[in-house]
Amino acid sequence: MLHIFFLVVKLLGLILLSLTHRNKVHGKFMSNIGRCDVSEGNWIFDMHYPLYDIKQCPFVEKIFSCQNNGRPDNFYPKFRWQPKGCEISSFDGRQFLSKHRGKDIMFVGDSLSLNQWQSLTCMLHVAVPEANYTVQRNSQLSTFTFPDYNISIMLERNAFLVDLVMEGNDTRVMKLDSLTSSLRWEHMDVLIFDSWHWWLHNGRKQPWDFVEYGKTRVKDIDRLVAYEKALTTWAKWVDSSVDVAKTKVFFQGISPDHDACEGRQGPLKTAGVSPPSEVVLERILNNMSAQVYLLNINRMSQYRADGHPSFYGLGGHNGDDCTHWCLPGVPDTWNLILLSFLV
Ligand SMILES: *[C@@H]1O[C@H](CO)[C@@H](O)[C@H](O)[C@H]1NC(C)=O
Ligand SMILES: *[C@@H]1O[C@H](CO)[C@@H](O)[C@H](O)[C@H]1NC(C)=O
Ligand SMILES: *[C@@H]1O[C@H](CO)[C@@H](O)[C@H](O)[C@H]1NC(C)=O
Ligand SMILES: *[C@@H]1O[C@H](CO)[C@@H](O)[C@H](O)[C@H]1NC(C)=O
């Protein structure tokens, strides 16, 4: 009798084990560093911040160089993100470069990828100022290298990830099911994607005449639905074609805009809930079989209305920029999180 009881317990155990094992194979995205949930915490004033002076990085674009553009206050870069009850590893650029000798790192996305790419290259250059670097800027692909370390850190401007193609002379078709840029991504060691803000453009700034998915072709479509379909196409590509043991795949969480950011000083007291785009992104990442990483930056960045260029970006008729981020500033923290996953 006892014997049978133990046999049943053992069988149940085996079934449970196979169930939990199945869960493991279905790789939920990772956004905690170890046990550290980086999305909850506070911005703490830290006199050792910022991590660099923008004058040390002549390659950073005007749009992010707020101090050079006359921003009068310099309080905003002096905040460090302190997750609740845990730490993000401190930044060691020299160690990072040594450990990633020979690696190719690529950001793929819109100007918020540009923002993070410029932050990372500046952080690394300032950490190892004696190492030579080269930087080639191009509208489609930009490359920053550290030849001494044989490391390339690239940026591909690609706001939608899926294909936007020309038909005939003047018909622009957004193909939500088609993704061919991936041929350029497959041999990278680290990929950091971002997409969202361009999906919102309408009127004259809308970059397509038709949207196509499956056998359907329409003039326009709900933008969140389009985003979800495009991300699904992207996720299928990662699941089917990327060897995540060789290539680490990251997605930059949704970078928040603020309605009003002029003259802000210091972090806001509260952050709101996740926007619908972030909810969609996390749902897609959670349904992937490949293990990917989310840079969980939405909530922490919501506190930082003070971190945008406002009139100290491009200024002029481009006006009040409450979308991008001054450098040094908020994207440096995004990179601290990225590097914590990579060391
Ligand atoms: C540099 O890295 C590439 C991989 O990105 C490798 O193929 C090449 O052999 C490396 N060159 C040197 C000089 O180490
Ligand atoms: C940096 O590049 C210059 C010119 O190419 C070269 O003369 C110099 O030796 C390099 N420095 C290092 C540390 O490799
Ligand atoms: C495209 O433009 C060329 C030159 O302007 C013209 O000859 C051709 O007919 C156009 N094709 C279509 C499909 O409109
Ligand atoms: C989840 O992934 C499966 C397999 O790739 C797919 O068939 C399904 O539509 C996805 N579900 C959602 C909600 O995205």
UniProtKB/TrEMBL annotation:
| InterPro entries, per the entry | TBL, TBL_C, TBL_N
Give an example GO molecular function: O-acetyltransferase activity
Annotated ranges, domain Trichome birefringence-like N-terminal: 35-87
- Kindly state one GO CC term assigned in the UniProt record: membrane
Q: What is its main location?
A: membrane
The record's subcellular locations are: Membrane
Keyword vocabulary terms for this entry: Membrane, Signal, Signal-anchor, Transmembrane, Transmembrane helix
Trichome birefringence-like C-terminal domain: residues covered: 89-340
Leader sequence residues? 1-27
Membrane topology designation: Single-pass membrane protein
Annotated family: Belongs to the PC-esterase family. TBL subfamily.
- Can you say what this protein is called? Trichome birefringence-like N-terminal domain-containing protein
Q: Which organism is it from?
A: Lithospermum erythrorhizon (Purple gromwell)
